[in-house]
Structure prediction request, 299 residues.
Amino acid sequence: MTELFLVLLARAPTSDELAQWSARFKAGATFAEVAMQLIVHPDANVFYPVGGIEPRSFVAQVFNKAFGRSATDAEFDRWLAMATAPDVTRGAFLDTVLHNIEGAAELRAWNAMLDAVLPARGDLAQQVAVTELYAAVLDRSPFPAELAEGLVLLLDGMSRLDFANKLLDSVEGASRYPSSTDPTSFVKALSQAMLHHAPGEELIDLAYLARQKSRVHAVLAMLARMDDSKTSETDRKMFADRVKANLGLVPVTAFTAATLDPASLRAALARADGVADRVIEMSYDFRNKVLRDCLKTHR
Prediction:
């Protein structure tokens, strides 16, 4: 969603806009379809008038906003050919050019632009916090749009407690943990989601915490146990491995966009950063070290 805001509105989305527009992806809309909806946004009218903008101007605007410079004649001709191909909508054109960037300099420029407007995306501690809470509360990794939304919310100042409460209050959270659930049953369900087994001796303490304070306090207390040496090594390792796997920490290898179809390219970018269509230029060893440190100290 941030990609589309950058090239169509020349700014990053606010947290409210990100949540609103990301919901369209969750509802099944494609990147191209959402692009066609956003292009008629009032803010986009400054660059892409509602009355229509001819293809040459459209291509020039998009290229300039993506890479911060004018296209060369060869680049312009190639993009113009794609934009004016039969049955290609402008949304489909944006999907193609933004997810098949050719040239190392252009890729670096695009990634730098994303980093500038969403610095939290480069903050592994924030990614760990969001991914941990999804794993603990909903027993799954966040979808790319959910991860992006979570990063923006934490960057805007939302606490981990409030974010955990947001997950509990979501449709999925309410289905998994009905409001009528008693504290003991809640902790049992939470343990199954987080550790895939029934709770042990911690059940009494966590149920008491859920009863005296709130269910979300029990969630954070169970997460804190993952840093406690009294917690079994098996549980701590299993949960850390789940978080690490969901972050997509794999070596970032060089690739040639021309050799990948769009689906493969998106998968490669998602593995590189855990956010769709995103490349973080970090080494594998460095990210592993930061992850280990974050899991120990970020709370």
